[in-house]
Amino acid sequence: MQNSASGPRSTLLDSLSWVEYAFQPAGLPAPAEAAYGHQRHSARVVSSAANFPPKQCEADGVIADGTRPVAVYTADCLPVLFADAQHRQVAAVHAGLTGTLSGILNSAIDALIARGATSRTLHVAIGPAIGPCCYELGADRIKDMQQRSDLPPLHWSWQQPENLHAIRPQAKAQQQGGWFDLPRLAQSLLVQRDIPAAQIDIVKVCTYCTAEAGSSYRRNTHFGTGYQSRFSWIRCREEPIPAG
After folding, report:
1. Strand segments (E) across the chain
2. Which of 41, 59, 133, 225 could form a disulfide with 46 if both were Cys (CB 3.0 to 4.6 A apart)?
3. pLDDT value at position 243?
4. The pTM is what?
5. Cis ω before 54 (30° cut-off from 0)
6. Mean pLDDT across the stretch 42-57?
């Protein structure tokens, strides 16, 4: 992961010369021409034509038509950017825990495959989100997930992990629950769909303790510090940058 003035970077997406993207800092607007949906933690994915101007319909994933950028807005949820190297198509997905468990990632993969992609041609970057260092879930919620046969093994711990890169205090336990790794759940679900692990990148920036101030909805509920949405977007370049 590299940082820039426009936010953290994904080494994986940076390797694709035909892709332009950003995990923007909280509070910055999406590109004026970007398409994004009215997000409701659903499993619905649509084309950019259905959500430009933005929020024309409810959707938590948008696939680009042509070179129009597609975006999602998040606070602690996962912004997930897809790039299909075979047909040079891209998608942006909003995947909180509810949407992830509802199947938003599968919906995005299915929609991209319907447009010509294969699991082996997809490259995926999971952007800044609340990390296991700060994401506490109740024991009952974790138990319910463990009983689902469609989910891969979960990554969580009773003991709170220390984030050595934290720039503000980590979350304090509120419900004597477990510390849950949402990015790892998304990664495991993608691998479960035969996307190669080497083609999945997790940008390890926790919105609660590591990102810029105002990034975390959960931190706001704990301290009333306020928060602003983070836009993450991706597009196909009209002309790829020449190699070398």
Report:
1. 2-4, 7-9, 19-23, 45-47, 61-63, 70-74, 78-84, 89-95, 122-126, 136-137, 156-157, 178-180, 200-202, 230-236
2. 59
3. 56
4. 0.95
5. no
6. 98
